[in-house]
Amino acid sequence: MQDILPKLVLAPSFAAVLLFARAPVDGSYVVDLLPLMILFFVLFPRIAGPLWGLPSDAFAGMTGLSDTMTPGSISRLVQSDAVAFRAQFAGRPPPPAVRYWRGPVLENFDGRAWTPARGGSDPAPESETGGTPVRYTVTLEPSNKRWIFALEVPDPLAPPTGTRLTPDLQLLAARALEHRARYTLTSFPQHRFGMDADARVLRRALRLPEYGNPETRALARRLRAQSASDADLVNRTLRLFHDEPFVYTLTPPQLGSDGIDEFLFTTRRGFCEHYASAFTFLMRAAGIPARVVTGYQGGEFNRVGNYLIVRQSDAHAWSEVWLEGQGWVRVDPTAAVAANRIEQGIASALPAGEPLPFFVRTDAAWLRQLRLRWDALDNQWNQWVLGYNQERQIGLFASLGFGIVSWRELALGLVVGIGLLLGGIALLTLRNGRRPRGDEVQALYLKFCAKLAKAGIPRLATEGPLDFAARVRAARPEWATAVDDIVRCYVQLRYGAHGSADALRTLAARIGAFRPC
Q1: 115-119, 347-351, 442-446: which range is least confident on average?
Q2: Which pLDDT does position 364 carry in this prediction?
Q3: pTM for the full predicted model
Q4: Which residue, 235, 328, 380, 487, could crosslink 469 as a Cys pair with Cβ 3.0–4.6 Å?
């Protein structure tokens, strides 16, 4: 501690003092906040955890997708306009219809809740990718979850360092994302995967509770009898959702024990989780392997920063079915009921009066632009500081020969460094003020008065500069312009709030050139 502290404090502080006060050619000093920001950035301790919370409660208040989906779970989530993540694309962003950001895959259903499959390790399925790949960088807000939301489907051959791609194409970080994280990804909108799906995986995707929802099971049998193939059955089911009077809403009625039956045949009012759950149940009851996928869909493009903002209000659920020869295929039953949700966002698809966040629903263009500009500034700051974490901060000082620096040493260095910086600025300000010294200005003015006295117009002892100039103009009109310029410059330097070395040099030059005769 005793060896490192002098170097830790003096080196950055001295450099900051030199940079903080720049000396332009006119001799005045300009205050520049950038070095002060650099001092804070380099020395402010990076603490692995929240500044004010305790480790046990640090992430308790975080909201986001869960690995359990029940009626109402996503509709409650989308009432938040908090940012989930941002994505910046190497080229043009893909159209809204393919902006499906894949998250948890849910396979188990107990009659009410969908949860992930537990235990065992599935074999990696066969996959084919084609078309133009989409390259982008995603910056995720802290969630205390491992999911990295990637466009379907992320490149199975090149997951980012520190991540892994599961057999059902969930991209997972090595540990929970307790801090903002950034990943560079490649995805293929044109893809096929799971053509050779393991029999165990397909059997699991057909499981249903032994009892419950008898009307839905009967409907599935009728659809099966009417369909020529699995693909035909999928299309017939989507037409049913489209043709029947279903309503897309954030405020559906409560459902009972046979919730799928009540939704399909009685209430017909629901949000994306209702449609994904009912569709997946129907497929399984008809003998087609199916599962629920949750994540986000869409996003708002910020032209100020050239990136996509995906908020919690973009949370979404859809289905996947397994078809012979095609593998796992995405099917979004919500699109059959409210196509605007996919193409134009949630606000355009919901009836008036739905409890959406104000900033999602507002049509005030100026307010939206203000918000996007603020978000662009916030994002730029995040990107700049994102890579400078606790490990890199420690490594920086270690590489400079300071050894392992504790956060207490960094904090003490920051405090002392700021003190030295401000002291240096005060010293420089005292030694080099903005205004020239009064004796230099007065000496030049006395030289000017001496020239006029020699020419026969002496200044009276009680005569101020303006009165003296008026008397000189009256006596010798031909000197009026030169005298006025000199006196005006003198008054500004002598009595004005702002003076400079340039103005002092100007006054000296004018007096030197003035030759009354």
Answers
A1: 347-351
A2: 62
A3: 0.66
A4: 487
Any catalytic annotation for residue 272? Answer: yes
| 489 labelled catalytic | no
> Which long-range CB contacts under 8 A does 122-126 form with residues at least 24 apart?
122/167, 122/168, 122/198, 122/200, 122/201, 123/167, 123/198, 124/156, 124/167, 125/167, 125/193, 125/194, 125/195, 125/196, 125/197, 125/198, 125/201, 125/327, 125/328, 126/193, 126/194, 126/195, 126/196, 126/327
Residues in contact with 474: Cβ distance below 8 Å, sequence separation at least 6, in sequence order: none
> Of the listed 168, 261, 314, 316, which one is catalytic?
316
- The token duo for 513 is 């050139």
Residue among 168, 272, 274, 375 flagged as catalytic: 272
Alpha carbon distance 86, 181 (integer Å): 11
- Is residue 430 pLDDT above 80, yes or no? no
pLDDT of residue 387: 57
Q: Which of 168, 261, 314, 332 is catalytic?
A: 332
Helix (H, G, I), strand (E, B) or coil at 282: helix
- Looking at residue 59, what DSSP letter applies? T
Summarised one tens digit per residue, pLDDT across range 389-398 is 565 666 666 7
